[in-house]
Amino acid sequence: AAALFESGLLAGKRVVITAGPTREALDPVRYISNHSSGKMGYALAAAAVAAGARTTLISGPVTLPVPDHVAFHPVESARDMLAACLDQVAECDIFIACAAVADYRPAQVQGQKIKKGAEEISLPLVRNPDIVATIAAVEKPPFTVGFAAETQDVLAYARDKMQRKHLDMIVANDVSEQGIGFNSEENAVTILHESGQRTLARATKFNIAREILEEIARVYREN
Ligand code: CTP
Ligand code: CA
Prior knowledge:
single chain; about 220 residues; alpha/beta; 12 strands; binds cytidine-5'-triphosphate; binds calcium ion
């Protein structure tokens, strides 16, 4: 595998990767977010560079160092992330959506800090745009890869997501298993595409990232 990478598996290809969580503001000091560490997306970015790709990383707030030779675009909200992705899509061969995008955001952002009062309050939320589905629906879409975080019926839900969002490939993640996936060092995934699937046994996120990029490069070339 290492030799494949050093030979420039993705030489000259333009790869755009989303990573990390998004933050959805509630007021000037508060937000809704999730526990995504960004590790899988950052590992993909480092592996894409190693494979010779011109790599852009569009990332929500995380505490990781940006890999060398990556064009870095930090964002906060899902809507910011979508705008940054649309800015890049015309110059993108392969789009990989690894971010844990918040599905909902507060319906209104209060201009001032919300003051404590009632014993109970409720918070109306509205749906965020679907970034990867939007990218897959542009006039000339890149080869588009999604991730699917599932706790049950992992492969069935993942395949359904791939079809509904018109993705070329989806990486299915069983987030019910301890010590893999969300916010951990290791991962184990199954890669699904139109004409096949491949399971990658538990390994470090960097090794999983390399294998995902190998599979992407293989299917991309056949497309
Ligand atoms: N995704 C996205 N924009 C969103 C939500 C998700 O681009 N607003 C992308 C993720 O980056 C991932 C894929 O869609 O590549 C699947 O994300 P996931 O949360 O597993 O699926 P959802 O479609 O949001 O469905 P649900 O959370 O209800 O399972
Ligand atoms: Ca979701």
